[in-house]
# Entry
Amino acid sequence: MSTAKKSAAKSPAAKKKTTTVSASPERRRELLHTAAEVFAAHGYNATTVRRIADEAGILAGSLYYHFDSKESMVDEILSTFLNELWDGYDAVLAAGHAPRKTLEALVTESFREIDRHRAAVAIYQKESRHLAAQPRFGYLTDSQQKFEKAWLGTLERGVADGSFRTDLDIRLTYRFVRDTVWVAASWYRPDGHHSPEEIARQYLSMVLDGIALRD
Amino acid sequence: MSTAKKSAAKSPAAKKKTTTVSASPERRRELLHTAAEVFAAHGYNATTVRRIADEAGILAGSLYYHFDSKESMVDEILSTFLNELWDGYDAVLAAGHAPRKTLEALVTESFREIDRHRAAVAIYQKESRHLAAQPRFGYLTDSQQKFEKAWLGTLERGVADGSFRTDLDIRLTYRFVRDTVWVAASWYRPDGHHSPEEIARQYLSMVLDGIALRD
Amino acid sequence: MSTAKKSAAKSPAAKKKTTTVSASPERRRELLHTAAEVFAAHGYNATTVRRIADEAGILAGSLYYHFDSKESMVDEILSTFLNELWDGYDAVLAAGHAPRKTLEALVTESFREIDRHRAAVAIYQKESRHLAAQPRFGYLTDSQQKFEKAWLGTLERGVADGSFRTDLDIRLTYRFVRDTVWVAASWYRPDGHHSPEEIARQYLSMVLDGIALRD
Amino acid sequence: MSTAKKSAAKSPAAKKKTTTVSASPERRRELLHTAAEVFAAHGYNATTVRRIADEAGILAGSLYYHFDSKESMVDEILSTFLNELWDGYDAVLAAGHAPRKTLEALVTESFREIDRHRAAVAIYQKESRHLAAQPRFGYLTDSQQKFEKAWLGTLERGVADGSFRTDLDIRLTYRFVRDTVWVAASWYRPDGHHSPEEIARQYLSMVLDGIALRD
DNA sequence: CATGAATGAGAATTCATTCAT
DNA sequence: TATGAATGAATTCTCATTCAT
# Structure
C-alpha cells in the first residue's frame, strides 16, 4: 500500500462533514471529471467554482452539496490519480525486473496513466509544487519522494549492472527522464493514432538510444 | 529584428499614459526583477500586486507610478526575455551551420538564456499558454511559431542529411527535445557546479546518444 | 387567556400550508425539543437548519415536512413557553395575595418555568429583542408589556403598603429583580441539588434582605 | 499587568499582515466605535460587514484596509475593553480594602466601565461564551476566571469577617451579584439622570440591604 | 415521512486599481 | 516618487428553502 493511498485516505477522513462524502458516488465522479478538465485547462487558481458549475450545468452553490470546497475537489482528483499511479508503479517495482526492463515498464505505465488521467496529470504538473505547501497535500511530497527513490534507484542499478552509461550525472539523468515523460501530459491528446504504448516505445527509443543516427 | 521585439515594442507604445515611461529606467529594472522573482515563485495569478510591493519595500499603490498594471509588468518581463532569446537564436540560425551543430548551438543558447533569465523562463513556461489568449500577448504566439519553425526545420534537415534517425515521428521528437530543454528552468539554480554550457553538454549527450550503454 | 396564547395561536393559523399541521404531534414535539436545545446552545442565527436535522438524525430538507420554516420553529417554541408562563403568572396574580407574597410567588413560578423550559427561556433571553422587530413575533412585545405591568404593579403596591423600601428608584428595582431572576436561565442546570423552589428561596432572601449581615 | 492585556497583545501580534495594524490609529478607532455599536445592537453574527461599512460611510471592502477580518474587529473591541476593565479592577484589588468596601468599589468600577464601554460590554455579554471557543479568544476565558476569583474571593473574605451573611450559597451569591451588575449593560443609556456612580449606589443598596423594608 | 439534489440570495473576503496629498 | 485610503468587481462559501421521488 502506497504512501499516497494512506495519506489520501486520511485527508478526507479528517473532515467533520461526512455527509458530503456519503452522497452518490456517480454524481461525484461526473462532477470531479468536469472539474478536472477545467482545472487542467485554466489552472487551479484561475478556475472559478462558478466556471466548474457552469460546465456541469448547475449553480455554483450546488457544488457544495457534493464537495466541501474547491480545495477538496483537487484533493480528490489528485489523490485518486496518485493512488492508481502507485498501484501500477508498485506492481512494476515488485516484479523484480532488470533495471532496463524496469525503466521501460515504468515509462510505459506512466504513459498509460497520462492516457487515463490526462487532466489529473496536467494538474499535478502545474499545481503540485504550491499545493504541497499545505499540510492537507502532504501526500504530494510523500509521493514525490517515493517517485524519486523508485526512478533514481532504477537508474543506479542500471549504471551498476552496465545497462546505462556511467559518464552521466545521475541526478541530471533522473530529471531528464522524469520531465521527458510527464511533460507529455501538457500536449497529449488521445486520438487513436498514438496509443500510450506506442508513444512510450518512441520515447524509450529516444531516451535509451538517442536521436542521432548511429554509425 | 524579431517578431517578439516588434510586438513587444508596439504593445507599451499603444498605451495612453506616457507618464509611466518617463520614470527612471533603473528603478523600473529593479522592480521588474523583483516582480519576476515573485511571479516565478508563486505564479502570475497567485501573485498579488501587494506582494510584489512588499518585496520591493513600497506600497502596492506606488507600483502604479512605474507601471500601468500588473499585466504590463509580465508583458515587459516576457518581451524583454524573448527579445534577448531571439537575438541569440537568430545569430545561431544565421550562421548556417550543419543541422547537428545547429541543434547543439540552439540547446546551448537555450541553457544560457535559462541561466540569465531563469525567472522569465519559468514564467514563460507556466503562463504563456493562457496569456497568449489576450491580443496584447500575441507576440507569444508569434514567437512560439518561429520557435517551432526553427527547431522542426533543423530536425528535418538533420534527418535529410543523415545526422538524425529516420525512424522517429518528427513532431514527437521536436516536443521531446523542446520540453527536455525548457523544463529545466523549473529546477535550475545557478550554483557554480553546473555552468549552462556544462548542462547543455550533458543534455545533448543524452538526447543525441541516449542513456543506454552502447555495445 | 393571555395575549401570548392568542397571538401565538393566530400566527401559525395565518399560514397557507395546512400540510404542516397535519403531521403527528409527537414527532413535532420531539423535533421542537431538539431544535430548542440547539437554539439555546448556539443562538438562533448561528443555528443552521442542518444542525438541527443532524441532531434529530434526519436530513435538513425533511424538517420542512414538519415545519414551514426555521422561524416557525422558534415561534412555536417561544409561544408554547409563554403560554405556560402566563398560565402560571395569571394564576398567581388572580389569587390576590399581598404584594410581598405575590412577589415571592412570581419569583418561585419563574424559577419553575426556568426549570421546565430552560432552553426556551434561554432563547427568549437572547433572541426576543431582535425577533420582536418582526410582526410575527408581536406577541413577544405584548408579553413583555404585560410582564412589566405585573411586576411594576406589585412593586408599587408593595411600596404603598410598606412592604418594600420607599427610597429606591422603582424602575431600577424592577429591572434589578427581573434580571436577577431570568438571567439564571443562562447557567441553571437541573441537578437535584437545587430544586427551583430552593433557588427561588435563596434568591428571594437575597433580593428582599440583601447579602450584608444585619446588625 | 493583566492576563487580558497580555493575551490581547499576543493575538494581533500573531498575524502576518502587520501593515494593517500600522494604519492611522484615529481612523481605526472611529471604525471600531461604529462597529461596536452595530455589533451591540444586532449581535455579532447578525451584523454584516456591509452594515458596518454603510454606517461608516464607506464600502464593505474598504474595511479590510484597516482590519484583517470581522473577527479581528470584535477581538480588538473586546480586548481593549477588558484591558481597561482590568486596569480598574486591579487597582481596586491592590488597594487592600476590607471586603465590603472592595465589593462596593468593584461594583462602582463596573458601572463606570459600562458607562464608558457600553457597546463592548453588551457584546461581551452576548458573545463571549461562543467566541471563547476559538483559541484566538482564549483571553476571554482567562479573564472570566480572574473575574470569578476576584469576586468569589471578596465574598468569601466578607463571609469570614462577618460583613456578609453566612447562610447563603456562595456560588449562587456570586452569580447573583455578577449578573445583576453586568446585565445592566443591556438597558443602560447614559442620560444625565443617572450617573454610573448613582446607579452603583442604588444597586449596592439593593444587593447589600435588600428591597424589603426593615422593621 | 424521508431523501437527494438542487436553488438563489447573500455572506465575508480579496485584489487590482485610482487618486488626492 | 511614494503614501493612505478608498473603490468595486469578483470569488469562495453558507444556508434556508424547494421539490421530485
